[in-house]
Amino acid sequence: MPVFCSMSLHLGMSLWGAGDAPKNLESWKGMRVRAPGAIGDGVRALGARPTSVPAPEIYTSIERRLFDAAALPFSYTFASYRIHEVSEWYTFNMNLAIPSCVILVSKDSWAALSDEERALVEEINAEAYELQFEALAGADTEWIPEFDAGGMERIVYEPVALSAFKAKTARPLWDGWIKRNSRRFAAEEYLNFILTEAEVANAEGS
């Protein structure tokens, strides 16, 4: 089954919240964080308590202090849901996960296409991928200055401590994900593809 991936590798997940800002990684212990799915595993490794609510409910939940922070892709998603209007701080380099958007195509439907049609789909997909990156970069250019101008505190964690935390926690989480999904699809191959693409993107951005 062909998989077309559009990944905002340069953005990653950010956490936004109100109340006492977690100035260091230890400060996350005991905090309640909206972090559904696999991102919840990373939040749990920080000592926080993950919870899950639909994205449209994040605004009201932060406003009413129903939880301390919420994780979403940075920066366009927070602007789309106006989360910056009720937040007091945000993490700038936490990046516990990389959001991905995949489109799955039926194997039978793909096989029924002609070679010319498959080539056209691949060509369109590559173009759409580049256009998405341009749109995401444009959102950063537009919104990050507005976030900072609004008086929110930008939290930047010490790189060495952050790298050590990720090195300690990432591999067990990845191995668990592979084990849970290996019977459903080529989970290890897919993870390796994601990690390779992330390394390429980081190298290009450095």
Q: Would you write up a description of this structure?
A:
This protein is of the alpha/beta class and 206 residues long. It is 49% helix and 16% strand. The protein is built from seven helices and eight strands, in the order E-E-E-H-E-H-E-H-E-E-H-H-E-H-H. It has helices at 39-45, 58-63, 76-80, 107-112, 115-149, 159-181, 187-205, and strands at residues 3-7, 13-17, 32-34, 49-51, 69-73, 89-91, 100-104, 153-155. The two termini are 34 Å apart. The model is unreliable at 1-10 (pLDDT under 50).
Structure summary:
With 206 residues, the protein is of the alpha/beta class. Helix content is 49%, strand content 16%.
Overall pLDDT level: 85
Strand order of the largest sheet: 4-3-5-2-6-8
The first-to-last residue Cα distance is 34 Å
Q: Are there runs of 5+ residues with pLDDT below 50, and where? A: 1-10
What coarse outline follows from CA principal-axis ratios? globular
Rg, Cα atoms, Å: 19 Å
Instruction: Name the beta content range.
Output: 15-25%
Largest sheet: 6 strands, mixed
Integer count of domains: 1
Assign the CATH class: Alpha Beta
The number of distinct β-strands equals 8
Give the helix proportion (percent range): 40-55%
Order of helices and strands: EEEHEHEHEEHHEHH
Q: Counting H and I runs of at least 4 residues, what is the number of helices?
A: 7
SS-based structural class?
alpha/beta
CATH architecture: 3-Layer(aba) Sandwich
